[in-house]
What we know:
Elements: E1 8-10, H1 26-36, E2 41-43, H2 68-78, E3 84-89, E4 106-107, E5 121-122, H3 125-145, E6 149-153, H4 159-164, H5 179-182, H6 184-194, E7 201-206, H7 217-229, E8 234-238, H8 246-250, H9 259-270, E9 275-278, H10 284-294, E10 298-301, H11 303-307, H12 311-315, H13 333-338, E11 366-370, H14 374-385, E12 389-393, H15 415-428, E13 431-433, H16 439-444, E14 449-452, E15 456-458, E16 485-489, H17 493-502, E17 508-513, H18 524-536, E18 540-543, E19 546-551, E20 554-559, E21 562-566, E22 571-574, E23 578-580, E24 591-594, H19 604-617
Parallel strand pairs: 1-2, 1-10, 2-3, 3-6, 4-5, 6-7, 7-8, 8-9, 9-10, 11-12, 11-14, 12-13, 14-24, 16-17, 16-22, 17-18
Antiparallel strand pairs: 15-23, 19-20, 20-21
Amino acid sequence: MLKLKNQFIMAPIKLGYSDGKGNIRPKHIDFYTQRSYDLGAITLEPLYMDVGLRELPTQLGIDSDEKIPAYQDLINKIHPSNTKVIAHINHPGRMANPNIPGNYFWSSTDKACPNGGATPVRMDKQMMSEVIQMHINSAVRAEKAGFDIVEIQFGHGYLMAQFLSPETNDREDEYGGSFENRMRYPLELFKAVKAKLNIPIIARISGDEMIPNGFHLPEMLTFAKELEKEGVAALHVTAGSACSTPPWFFQHMFIPKGKTWEFASKIKEVINVPIIFVGRINSPKDIDSLKEKYDAHYMALGRALVADPDFVGKYLNQKTGQIRPCLACSEGCLGGVKQGKGLGCVVNPLVNTGYKKPEMATVFKNFAVIGAGLAGMQAAITLKERGYKVNLYEKDQPGGQFNLAFLPPKKESLKEIVDYYKQELKTQGVNLILEEANAEILNSNNYDGVIMATGAVPAIPPIKGLKEYYWTEFLNDDQLPKNEKVLVVGGGLIGLEVASKLIEGNNEIIVVEMLEEIARGMEMIEKAMTLKRLQENKVKIYLKHQVVNIDNDKVLLKFDDGELMLDGIRKIIMTTGMKSFLPFKDELSASVYTIGDAKQVGKAQEAIREAYELALNL
């Protein structure tokens, strides 16, 4: 039995903070201890069992006894809050990272992942025995280090799932063919590890691989019953495969919330082992729903605890304050890890930055912030938390251009951060002045400093004949064209989001991009799914083409080898980039600071981080 102080567990999320040798660093200790106080248990990121099986160069390892003391130190810092610590061990099989020198690739098959990856070696019985021993060694090492529970990965397209899945198990021996045969090796491994441990084992499984030829819920019901017979302490039920269905693996905003909960509830009906529900549990409403609808035993929260370490404490009324929402965008967490920077967060500027919570200033000052976009609101809130007087000027409405970010299809969750900031402005008592600021107003108030968070405006290239054009107006449903031929000039993030939205109006859409890369700046899962949507809806995309002349409804494109004339264009939308907007900066008498897009056009994560850093240090 797990015997946790409450039903909340932190799910295993890759941090990418290690030193390249699999060692714990101070960043790990800060991250995990900050999040541990209110939880029943906290799961560390997936621990590699052999240096040749890494998914990240900077992944934590549990491959040698030399690492035990550092884990003991971390666990000893978490245990005083009566929070248990879980070691999640996983053999990636063919999903080991092919870009890491020295990695090797074993699997049930010799087929590579269709989404990329090395060609694996089909495992023989000697290899299978070595992998079982590797799990035993790592699990025993975890117990010696003081971990309370071991979790073994049987899902998400990793090695054990490669044996379970008919998509990847094409063997003709006793470990292939029928599902009874396909689950034989995973069960042998589980039994062998359990025989050597004195602490509970959780099995993490995908309730469904979410691919036509993968395994599905009926097979997982059978597998769950077998794991129950073998003494599994709990089943942690998720969905998808890192290889074939990454949006399900990462529980991205583009997939429907709650499907994993349905899988977990169905498994819960057929066994008497505790079930851990997981998958975009990022609001109190989700928790209440899981309790009321499914009588959930345990709930695993992942990125919600990245966005707000105190999420559970606030839900339990043990801590005060509004919950900072996770947007399920994968931009800062997945994006940062993929880029080698380590896990970050779009909405939480304290993640992977070394910044601390604001402290009260010793000298009273009076600041003006111009522009209530994300950067401006964050700066104003942090300054107010430090005890300064703050006037926040906004000519339109709080949110700035981020009010457009949640209008494209399936991006509704992004609105939550705007709503969060609006409420924080009220809670902190920031004086929001809904009028357009100018130098005269600001100079007459004798501010100690003025923070320019005035954002950016569209950068429109000089195109012969360009008279009437639009920008992002069509993201609003009430202005969406219908049944028209529309040209989108610019194939970056904004251009493709506009094109995706235009599909809803049954429009004929053409995207023109002068560079050879499409969807620059778009997070990788969103990019893949948006491009798929555009392709399915026959959106034409011209790369390395440039608009050179417009004559009424005719648009002339140039490319390396010639020209192309487009006829019948009814509307032209320009999404050719943005440029910083800094009005009246040089007319101000106070000290001037610039943040966000007003400083350099970038992403929300950079804007929020810059704003927080500046306000922390003024």
